[in-house]
Design a protein that fits this description.
The chain has 241 residues and is α/β, with parallel strands linked by helices. It has helices at residues 2-9, 49-62, 82-88, 133-143; strands at 16-17, 24-25, 28-32, 35-41, 71-75, 91-96, 104-105, 118-123, 144-151, 162-168, 174-177, 192-197, 209-210, 231-232, 235-240. The relative contact order is 0.15.
């Protein structure tokens, strides 16, 4: 019955393809602090715009490669990627500061691992929660083996990065609002930082956030700045050791 109602409500809506589960059809809209966010969630697996973009980046980086000998450290492991990474990488470990069910309960600012322990470090939408992100970036680089990759996306929600004086409980305890300039913080630590953008991949995957951000600042987000437009790109940085 739920799927029938969804089909009726979405009759005539644009269809897209999820690169994670291969569903094809309308994506679900979401409601949030900016109002309705269009075409956001995959109907089958629940993946959001950022997950779909990250999956396409992963396919670009590792498609056709033998990754069985690579070691991955995955922070704040997403349900969409955990089983994929377990099959993809010969050594796969998970980590988080507070979550249960991970291999390592660790602070990203002070990692207990030896240097050059991992070939891939994956931390999506993590650094906006870390007070001393400079220390966390240094630690990620330290545990990354020569030639390794760190994939470190953050939510691009501001025209420029703003660091908060304290965590904002109404923004999931974010300590900053990243802008496109945030990735400049990675460049001193890595030999190269490549940026993959929503527009680098076909439109059929729907990799943009369709939402109205012109109403900022707000009581919920007093340090966010207004952003023009109704379609906002996402960015995935890939940092080479």
């Amino acid at each position: 019955m739920r799927e029938r109602l969804f089909g009726l409500a979405n009759r005539g809506k644009s269809s897209f393809t999820c690169p994670i589960c291969r569903y094809a059809g309308p994506f679900r809209d979401l409601s949030g602090p900016t109002g309705r966010r269009l075409h956001a969630r995959c109907t089958r697996c629940g993946a959001l715009e950022r997950h779909r973009l990250q999956m396409l980046v992963l396919q670009s980086l590792f498609g056709g490669r033998d990754t069985g000998s690579l070691r991955m450290l995955h922070f704040a492991p997403e349900k969409h990627f955990r089983p994929i990474f377990m099959k993809m990488f010969g050594g796969y470990e998970t980590a988080d500061l507070c979550a249960r069910g991970v291999d390592h309960r660790v602070d990203l600012q002070r990692l207990p691992f030896p240097g050059a322990s991992y070939d891939v470090v994956y931390a999506s939408h993590v650094l906006e929660h870390v007070p001393d992100d400079a220390a966390a970036i240094r630690e990620i680089r330290r545990v990354l083996a020569p030639g390794g990759l760190a994939i470190l996306p953050v939510p691009i929600v501001n025209p420029v990065t703003v660091d908060y004086p304290e965590p904002n409980a109404r923004e999931s305890m974010h300590v900053r609002a990243p802008g496109p300039d945030y990735f400049d913080r990675y460049r001193p630590h890595f030999s190269r930082v490549d940026l993959y953008r929503s527009g680098d991949f076909p439109e059929r995957y729907q990799l943009y956030a369709y939402e109205d951000r012109t109403g900022f600042p707000s009581a919920r987000s007093p340090l966010l700045l207004p952003t023009a437009g109704s379609r906002h790109e996402d960015i995935v940085p890939v940092c080479l050791a």
